[in-house]
Amino acid sequence: MAELFSSITLREITFKNRIAVSPMSQYRTRDGYANDWHTVHLGRFAIGGAGLVYAEATAVEREGRRTHGDLGLWDDAQIARLKPIADFIHREGAVPGIQLSHAGRKSSERRPWHGETPVDHEDVTERNEGPWPPCAPSALPYADGWPTPSEMSEDDIGRVIQAFGDAARRAMEAGFKMIEVYAAHGFLVHQFLSPLSNHRSDRWGGSAENRRRFAIEVAKSIRANWPEHYPLAFRLSATDWIEGGIEIADTVQTARVLKAHGVDLIDCSSGGIGGKERPRRMVIKEGFQSPFAAQVRKEAGIATMAVGFLWNADFCEALLASGKADMVALARELLDDPNWPLHAAAKLGDNEAHSLWPIEAGWWLMKRDRLLRKLGLR
Ligand SMILES: Cc1cc2nc3c(=O)[nH]c(=O)nc-3n(C[C@H](O)[C@H](O)[C@H](O)COP(=O)(O)O)c2cc1C
After folding, report:
1. Which residue's CA is the nearest one to ligand 1's atom 13?
2. What is the residue-wise DSSP string for 271-316?
3. Distance 332 CA to ligand 1 centre (A)
4. Which of 201, 286, 331, 335 is deepest in the core (most CB within 10 A)?
């Protein structure tokens, strides 16, 4: 059997294979409430054979949304719309996961197709969507032309840490079985971790140890509200790709510390701390971030997920077989082909007679296949 289709257990949750649906914001909610779009969007990945289906970046407080369309879990009332989605994913044999998020200085942003720039008065006229003031570890804007966030007070920090814990409790009540903290791509937890965005001189900034404190407190707050037998992951930007920012050695140490505080897996992404230009050092090619997953896995002794520009089953299989990662996450390839895991299984020889397909489809595809072969057409 291919490694990609071998099961893996984190705490007491078993994933039937190593394929995760990477969190993908849909910008499609009203006030953070999931709707039919999310049911179909996420449900098709469970039917398509993924082992882990992550719901998108989900705001732990209203002010922590990136855009007006973000999913939210800041209110108990938001649980009921997510529950049937998580239950469906679970019934179809995948593990339902959710990414918890606070956008910090990247809050109040337009959806990608509206420009990915700060919300302003035009949005009020065009969509009745007004801006709101962002907060961050330091009063440093995300990029030129972005609002200067307010520097978070001790009270603000405590409130957001608690909000992560409260959202974790709601995620559990909604039926999710894995949480990933969005600590990458320039979101709030990453803003605390990176010296480029955290210029504080109190216990939340300065030394690497102080900059990690927020991430650790978030992990502790979640662990206090999340079942012991359910896994917890962090998505980290393994490097900022910018001089003076986070480097992979810092991330290895962050992973070690998070592991000691109940984190089970590091999802190794990169970049996004500031500015809209791609950093010069960031060269994109197939699996370009997977060396980070390999290094964190080896040096921090924690399970890792490789992500970024993955679409080739053989490439993913080689990553796992050579011990570079424990799981792979795909985003855009799955948008293109939600059945990618089933097709990958066929390619790697693990989907004999369409046995991995839901019977409602597999039955017919198996019969058609036989006929095609008999007729010499395949
Ligand atoms: C539509 C879309 C929405 C995304 N939203 C999120 C998100 O909510 N959280 C996150 O961590 N990454 C998000 N990402 C990044 C993906 O999870 C993934 O890391 C990135 O697309 C690279 O993987 P890929 O090459 O397989 O697409 C998003 C990507 C896409 C295409």
Report:
1. 24
2. --SS-SSPPTT----TTTTHHHHHHHHHHH--EEEEESS---HHHH
3. 7
4. 331
